[in-house]
Every structure is written in C-alpha cells, then in structure tokens.
C-alpha cells in the first residue's frame, strides 16, 4: 500500500536530492520540485581553465555513518575522495604569517597563538566547573574554560570558517551541540573527549570519523550521481512561485500553469522561502519558521598556474577577526585533493564577508580581485607581484544559517506544524545542522521515517 503514495520533495539541494534518492531506494514514487534551473543548490562545481572550483561547499566530514553509506550506494557513479593527510594541518593567521593550529594539549603549550596565561589555563580545563547558562555563547563558554586568546585564535576563526558567524552571538547548545554536551555530560572538553574515545562503538558507528572528504572531481559529480539515481524525469526545474495547500487528506501544489497532488511533502528549502510556500500556516507559525538569519559569504576560486615552489600543504588558513584582515579564510583544495589544478599549479578558495562583514557583498569584481592579488604575496608568500591567473567570484547573499536563541521557538513551531499536518515534513538547514554531513543524515532520517509510516 505504502509504495503507491506520491511523495514530493521541495528543493534539489543536497538535502532534497539525498532524501528523494533514499525514498526511491525504499521503493516510493517520488518527485523533486526545484525553483531554479539547476539541481545541487549551493553544491556546484565549475571547471575554469584547468582549475576545478567549488561555488559552495569544498569539503565535508564523514561525521555520520549515513555519509559513508550514501557513497557506498553511489559507488558506480561517483567516488568519495578522502583528503590527503596534509589536510590535518590547519593554519591560523597571527601577526604577519600563518601558524599551525595545535591539534593536542602538548602542541598548545608551544604555539605562539595563545598567551602563556591561557596555556596554563588549558592545562586546568578538566577541573573547571560546567556552566549553568543554557544560552551561553560559544565565545563565552570557551573563554571561561580555555581563556580569551583561545577564543581569539582558535574558536573565532573556526566559527568564521564553519558559520561565517560571531562566536559571542551563537549559543553553544544550538550551534555546537556536541561541544555543549561534552561539558554538560562529562564535565569538560578534555574529559569528554577522552570518555568518548573509550566508548565501545558498533561497526556502523565506526564508519563516522573525522575524515575530511570531497567527491572525486568535485561535488558537482555527487550532485549528478544523486540526480541520475532519482531520474531526470522525476525532477522538475524552474518551479518558481510554488505554493502548497491542504487538499482533503492530500496536498495540492501549484506554480505557473502546473499542478501536482501529493500524499506527503518534504520541504528542504531555506526558512525564508516557507512563508510563500506554505500560505495556509498561521501568521504566528510563519513568523516563527522564518526567524532564521543567513549570513552572506563571498567565495572566490583562485588559480595559480605556476607556484614557483611556494607549495602549501595544508587544509587552509583561517583569519581571526582580531587580526582585522579583509579575508575570513583561504582553503587549499589542490593540497587536499587530486586534479584540482594543472600540473605545477595550485588552487585556493577565498572566503570573505560573513555575519560581521555583510558590506563585502557590495564590493565589485575589481575590488575583490585586488584583495586576492594583494594577499598572494603578503599572506600566501608567493613572489611579489604574483597575480591570480584565474579568478571566479561567487556571491551568496544568504549563505549560512545562524542558529541563535530564536532556534528553540523555530524548532517548537516545526514540531507543532508537523503534528498538525503529519504528512508535511519541514527539513533542510532550518534545523539539524548546517554542514553537508548533517544534511545527508537528516535527509536519510526523514526519508526512512516516512517509509515506516
Ligand atoms: C559558500 C558556502 C560554503 C560552504 N562550505 C561548506 C563546507 O565546506 N562544508 C560543509 O559541510 N558545508 C558547507 N556549506 C554548507 C553546505 O553547502 C550546505 O549545508 C548544503 O549545501 C545545504 O544543502 P540544502 O539542500 O540543505 O540547501 P540548499 O543547497 O540551499 O538547497 C535548497 C534548494 O531548494 C531550492 N529552493 C529554494 N526555495 C524553493 C522553493 N520555494 N521551491 C522549490 N525549490 C526551492 C533552492 O533553489 C536549492 O536548490 C557551505 C555553504 C555555502 C553557502
């Protein structure tokens, strides 16, 4: 009986495509409706004069078994590529150069990134009391446990890299729930990490690792593989102006001259699309669902044909806000993955803007190119006068959702709406995490829960 249900997924980004593929795998009829003329959402790869550049995500972590399992299933169509071991080296800008971020407490003693006082403070971390404020920001929590210089030179750049956000505005419980639980459950970060590393894991749980991944040839190949698995005849593009309304015990979807009737709906689009998409919700529900701010990000793909021996072997470099640079961070895809740049060349991905510098969206191509070119010698230590051979600029006005205090209200409303309308599922990065691993896990979970109904 269940197999004849018509299920429609709204949005063909990573969440929507993964969810639709899982539903199809589970034996359902599924159709995907996408607003724009292409699938993949933020996940897009371009080839620019021999350089492979990402418009959006560059790497993910295999943080859930669902990520590894998805690639198992798609193995004939696209391959997971684990990053080269150089990706373990993460750099932080301080003064006039990048320094390696220490990866353990011993390294933290010798790094020039933290003050001597905070180095002693880090040693005392296991004995510090857990906090009592459930909305304590990541910055405040890390400052209390590890010291201000740790916030400035580790937490701030990390949060810039992941959230393009402000560590003193993001509550740890909502933005980094695993970190919050380390303190609340085990009494501290070091104690918690040790306890978790000793925990027995099932074979399936062991598939979740900290390994950094991409897809061979770029994430565009994952998008294509997901699209092919669903079938192009089951994906409708250019569904702009889509609205959904209850229709007996089903749903009616309309846009332009088109119409569909469905038994189950899964939305995977950003929160700000929901008011137009679900016009039947109450004013209060609409307001609460749309209470999420997306920080802007400008991503710039930069190709250098001849590195002249300046070879970076690292995941990338992040820039603390305290250092007052124009750049949030620089990823080094050709140091981590094969065939991202022509022989002898290198490929970088620059990030600018974020929640604290929304004005960067207004900068012209010329201004952004100048910022990149100026940094090649000063920050990346290429010979003076080095200019990028290839530059591609991608402006994302609403890129990274910031899980702030309003999140509780939003999650409560999602639960309320889903209880009121059990065949409507509100997914996507409106909840459950902003990274690719979280998107894949949520998509698989939602699909499997629908299959069980
Ligand atoms: C610049 C940038 C860099 C990033 N880097 C990383 C990274 O390195 N690692 C990492 O793990 N994550 C990264 N992320 C996050 C990652 O890209 C996202 O988690 C993921 O791509 C989100 O997928 P999604 O399907 O949930 O959303 P989206 O990609 O936003 O897809 C939503 C889809 O829904 C469609 N849509 C919207 N409204 C409607 C509507 N009304 N009707 C129909 N369709 C609609 C959109 O057109 C889009 O195709 C980055 C994000 C950005 C923007």
Give a quick precis of the structure.
The protein is an alpha/beta fold. It contains 16 helices and 20 strands.
Biggest sheet record: 7 strands, mixed
What percent strand?
15-25%
Straight-line N-to-C gap: 11 Å
- Give the number of helices: 16
The CATH class of the largest domain is identified as Alpha Beta
Give helix % range. Answer: 25-40%
Descriptors:
single chain; 453 residues; alpha/beta; FAD/NAD(P)-binding domain; protoporphyrinogen ix oxidase, domain 3; Polyamine Oxidase, Chain A, domain 2; 7-stranded mixed β-sheet; 5-stranded parallel β-sheet; 16 helices; 20 strands; binds flavin-adenine dinucleotide
Description of the molecule:
The protein is an alpha/beta fold. The protein has 3 domains: 2-41 and 64-81 and 218-292 and 403-452, FAD/NAD(P)-binding domain (3-Layer(bba) Sandwich), CATH 3.50.50; 114-198, protoporphyrinogen ix oxidase, domain 3; 293-402, Alpha-Beta Complex (Polyamine Oxidase, Chain A, domain 2), CATH 3.90.660. It is 34% helix and 22% strand. It has 16 helices and 20 strands. The chain has helices at residues 14-25, 65-73, 105-110, 116-123, 138-146, 148-163, 172-175, 177-186, 189-198, 220-230, 274-277, 283-289, 333-336, 365-378, 407-420, 436-452, and strands at 6-10, 29-33, 45-48, 51-54, 60-61, 80-82, 90-94, 97-100, 212-215, 235-236, 243-247, 250-255, 258-262, 264-267, 293-304, 316-318, 329-331, 346-353, 390-402, 424-426. The strands form 5 sheets. A 7-stranded mixed sheet has the order 8-7-16-17-18-15-19, sandwiched between helices. A 5-stranded parallel sheet has the order 10-2-1-14-20. α1 (14-25) packs parallel to α10 (220-230) and α2 (65-73) crosses α16. It is globular. The relative contact order is 0.20.
